[in-house]
Amino acid sequence: MPANALTSWMALPTAHGYIPGTPFFGATAMIHARSPALGLLFSGACLLAAAPGAQATDPRPERSFATSETFEASEIAAYTGDHAEVHARIDADLDAHVAHLQRWLRQRSISAQDDGIADMAQLLADDLRELGFQEVAQVATPGHPGVLGYYDAGAQRTLVVYMMYDVQPIEPNWRIDDPFAGELVEHELGTVLMARGATNQKGPQRAFLNAVDAIVKTHGTLPVNLYVVAEGEEELGSPNFGAVIEPWLGRLREADGAFFPMNIQNPAGDATLNLGVKGIIYFELEARGGDWGGPATAEVHGSLKALVDSPALRLVQAIASLTTPDGNTILIPGYYEAVQAPSLAEQRLINALAREPNDRQMQQALGVSRWIDGLEGREALVRNLYDPTLNINGLWSGYTGEGVKTILPHVATAKMDSRLPPGLEPEDAFRLLREHLDANGFQEIVIRPMSGYPAASTGVDEPLVQAAISVFNKYGVTLRVAPWLAGSAPFYQFTRTLGLPFVFGGLGHGSGAHAPDEYMLLHPAEGVAAAALADIEKSYVDMLYALAALAAPAD
Amino acid sequence: MPANALTSWMALPTAHGYIPGTPFFGATAMIHARSPALGLLFSGACLLAAAPGAQATDPRPERSFATSETFEASEIAAYTGDHAEVHARIDADLDAHVAHLQRWLRQRSISAQDDGIADMAQLLADDLRELGFQEVAQVATPGHPGVLGYYDAGAQRTLVVYMMYDVQPIEPNWRIDDPFAGELVEHELGTVLMARGATNQKGPQRAFLNAVDAIVKTHGTLPVNLYVVAEGEEELGSPNFGAVIEPWLGRLREADGAFFPMNIQNPAGDATLNLGVKGIIYFELEARGGDWGGPATAEVHGSLKALVDSPALRLVQAIASLTTPDGNTILIPGYYEAVQAPSLAEQRLINALAREPNDRQMQQALGVSRWIDGLEGREALVRNLYDPTLNINGLWSGYTGEGVKTILPHVATAKMDSRLPPGLEPEDAFRLLREHLDANGFQEIVIRPMSGYPAASTGVDEPLVQAAISVFNKYGVTLRVAPWLAGSAPFYQFTRTLGLPFVFGGLGHGSGAHAPDEYMLLHPAEGVAAAALADIEKSYVDMLYALAALAAPAD
């Protein structure tokens, strides 16, 4: 039902919807927003030839595939564990479970505006204690506090559950009066909970805790030990998440995996499970008059250009030196070489994704007439996953008002980012950029780093991933599995800092993250295949038991 | 007294002083502002070698000089006509003459805000009738009205006097309460008339009419026939000046020259007489997603750069293709070739200007540590006069606020201008720019022309120029003469549309055009050599008689 998938896509962030206000990368928004549509992207005709529009001097390394085999998610055995008692408890308590979601959504927690943050942190900590977490602590950080919880079940397996308790600011044009009223709304897809944070991320997180509650109430304890590591600054780019996990770093590293509850189904019930994210460097490039030339303190009259260096032209030249004239191939030496080549396992994932051509649909949804170099199908998938990017997010200098003003501005600035596939480290990216600028005579161009972190990816063969897929299969979800997203999130904190396999996903459908009318679907209408709240919670129960049933760790 | 010259410079437009509000090129401001300091610029060690930093592939044509002779303004005989009776009348009526200036300055006439425009046009027309102009007419235009006047003296010679009756808007930080009070203020340089329009341009214009008044009152008529052609939109870029002169076009073309009264002395009494201006094209370059690629209707998420063309990067690449990496040499084929080579007469002017090295002083005043390519002296003069420029006035795309936002913007725009020395026509400049962009694959980049007009220059050997210099010499003014300014003004209307020699200048000192505390010096303090109002008016009297005394026209 691709029309529905597109509806879901279209309901999502429009031009200014991603990051209203001051927030950061909107990692969760991008995952939420893009998951159904990125699913469409991970498909297309299977082409092996080089891109038709590729540069003669294309610095991209050869990316020929050694296998034409495909990864088949459906071939992983569906989870068969029987937890009927717990499931029945969920059905019995469903009204109370919905009320828990509403209670969370009614508590404001806008991180960018420090609105309700302290109360939400307290609410989360209280809920963990209520659920039986023996250790619960708030962690002070230079920003908003973190919340740590540990449920010691005396089990062999331990899972770290990541949570974000903050939400985006409110933008205009909601169809409900109060995005913090936690209202149930009749929607074309069924009964939805419409509220800021409904799907990003309180809804699925509290649904997960409802599952925990049902298990504990049924069996008195959990099948796995559970850490909750929660931050209140995800929407600000997780600047202090390192400080949040620092107190329990040694303990967390002993866990078997990390999990982030997330609604990843589209209305048709399909889902794309992304096993990682790209990294990013975000920075400003600035040219300013100084010893090298140009006006140092203020703009001068534009007619002086015959004698005076132009910082704006220098910035333009510096940026232009970074790419081919089409803006699509990065000319920084070493930039592509650092990227890891597709592993055999990744090749199988991509071969599977490439079977359904959907480039045109993605392009339509984005308002884009073509991909760069006329790419499509598997080629587009490979570029999207393995190409580092170089992008101008913003650019400004001098007079930008109406009409004519004749000045030679003394400063020019660009906000740029580069997405980093696994292998290309942020510190290397910054270093290669600086070296390139210096080697090309742009010593005066300042690089002002604003953020940077590496990619994160978890192998599809990891037991935690296999367990997750087995649960999806139990619920009949048609699952695409991608090695990672083209977007970025600081998930390296799990894969690298904690050294754990990391899964972000789960049954359920929601939309509108970072946009008006955010919702999570609770009771699907006839013909809508995405899971109902009860099934979402039951799948989380199954996930925990599936993890508990994993073969013993190597040690 | 270079310190004073710099003081005069420094008192002038600062960063945002040129064009507050909506106005246009600020041609008069630039002339006012730059005259004393540009005088400093037109000097320097006499170097013939190529610029040290010049590109190996420098497309500039050879500009070797065929003469080392210098033009000596002081060798032109001082004007010797005796008009003692008229001069005495000026002395006797001086209080009334000051009152006329004050009356003009008290009448608001801010063109950008349509504030007092109609009243000022009426006041000017009434004054011309009062002075005895037999024909006076207001000319309706799509903008503010023009005023035409003709004084038929039955003389052999005819002079066209250009006037602008509009002024700039008021900016904050004036030291007087009301910039339209027409106040006399005690200033370190002497008694000044401080008001918006005092030097730009009402003061010198009404001083000129005071001179006319004195002649008519003394002798009953003028030594030359006089046209006044006045517009109320100079500060808006003279968009309708063609319509203003259109009704009398045939008649005006029969005149012997055109004149624009202007205070061009610095406090030390020195002056630079510029015999022309560069032309200009001003335009926006824009890249916008469309059929060629990129997002067509709205920004998309920045992580999509791996697949989606970036209009911002394309704009950057297109602009970068226009210049060498240093931003200082234009790579548009044919752009330099169209420029006229320095004539022998111009070479003599430049040789004279190059005798006093003042690059450092100019650089200090501008806050610039060096000229491009390390230029100095005559080389800098030649580049400044004969190089077309390419300049970014403004540049914008995407997110330009605080912090981080990850978008791929769908549109990017630059405001650019190119100054055109004589020979390079605006329509050719636009054509060459388009051809260059097309030839380099930038067909999708839109050029949005906003203004364009050619250079204007009058030869130093023209009798009108020689007459003007003879009058400067009579008053002991040390005069630098430059072929033209690096700045732009639509003076082609005189040199090309009317086909007349054109002189803009005159005794007198003022400062602060387009800036707070604009003034015209009326009564210089002890040791300040710039002319007093009485001498300014007497020099205008002498100018008119000097013109009348010119040898009969060739026909």
Walk across the major sheet of chain A and give the strand order. 1-2-6-3-7-18
Assembly annotation: homodimer
Q: What is the share of helical residues of chain A?
A: 25-40%
Largest Cβ-defined interface: A-B, 99 and 99 residues
Show unreliable segments of chain A: 1-26, 32-55
- Tell me the Rg of chain A in angstroms: 24 Å
**Shape estimate of chain A:** globular
Number of helices of chain A: 16
Biggest sheet layout of chain A: 6 strands, mixed
Mean pLDDT of chain A: 90
Keyword list:
6-stranded mixed beta sheet; alpha/beta; 555 residues; 31% helix; disordered N terminus; homodimer
List the SSEs and their pairings.
The structure is a homodimer of 555-residue chains.
Chain A lengths: L1 H9 L16 H15 L42 H9 L1 H13 L10 H15 L3 E5 L6 E6 L6 E7 L18 E5 L2 E5 L7 H18 L5 E7 L9 H5 L3 H4 L4 E5 L9 E4 L1 E13 L11 E2 L9 H10 L23 H10 L5 H8 L10 H10 L4 E8 L8 E2 L2 E10 L5 H14 L6 E8 L2 E2 L5 H12 L4 E4 L2 E4 L3 H6 L4 E4 L4 E2 L7 E6 L8 H16 L7
Parallel strand pairs in A: 3-6, 3-7, 7-18, 8-16, 9-17
Antiparallel strand pairs in A: 1-2, 2-6, 4-5, 5-20, 9-13, 9-14, 9-15, 10-12, 11-13, 19-20
Helix pairs in contact in A: 1-2, 2-11, 3-6, 3-16, 4-6, 6-16, 14-16
